[in-house]
Specification:
alpha/beta; Molybdenum Cofactor Biosythetic Enzyme, Chain A; 6-stranded mixed β-sheet; 45% helix; 20% strand; globular; MogA/MoaB family molybdenum cofactor biosynthesis protein; MoaB/Mog_dom; MPT_Adenylyltrnsfr/MoaC-Rel; molybdenum cofactor biosynthesis
């Protein structure tokens, strides 16, 4: 399985702080899928930079983003992801919000998106370490299954 983790953060992209959320996603994925090849990218909260990172990693099984899913003016990750994808996978975003709501009511303000471009699944996670820890664990049970479906290995 191949996964790219894109962290959308102005401050992390400028080196003002360490990208902890991307590292947590990588760590949890490697616990579940030790053979997984993971590529991490850090970009500013800018549509052009996020789109470029999505384009450059199309072909991986998954592109997971962290950051930029809220309602501030610079939170553009879901908008860029929606424009990038060919079709939506609403069940993923819905369950991530549902499970996150159990932790915090602020989950209702998340605009995270999940969609499909060719055979790459794109999923937006919020930016906090706590949120990505939860969201990654929620997503893990379907990650291998989706790959089998793409390869025609059945359900």
């Amino acid at each position: 399985m191949t996964v790219t983790v894109i962290t959308a953060s102005d401050r992390a992209s400028r080196g003002e702080y360490e990208d902890l959320s991307g590292a947590v996603i990588e760590s949890i994925l490697l616990e579940a899928y030790p053979e997984c090849r993971i590529n991490r990218v850090i970009v500013p909260d800018e549509a052009v930079a996020i789109r470029k990172a999505l384009d450059e990693n199309l072909g991986d099984d998954y592109i997971l983003t962290t950051g930029g899913t809220g309602i501030s003016p610079r939170d553009v990750t879901p908008d860029v992801s929606r424009e990038f994808c060919d079709s939506e996978l609403p069940g993923i975003a819905e369950i991530l919000r549902f499970e996150s709501y159990k932790e915090t009511p602020q989950a209702m303000l998340s605009r995270g998106y999940a969609g499909l471009k060719n055979q790459t699944i794109v999923v937006n996670f919020p930016g906090s370490v706590k949120a990505v820890r939860l969201c990654t664990r929620v997503l893990i049970p379907i990650m291998d299954h989706s790959g089998k479906m793409f390869r025609g290995e059945g359900h």
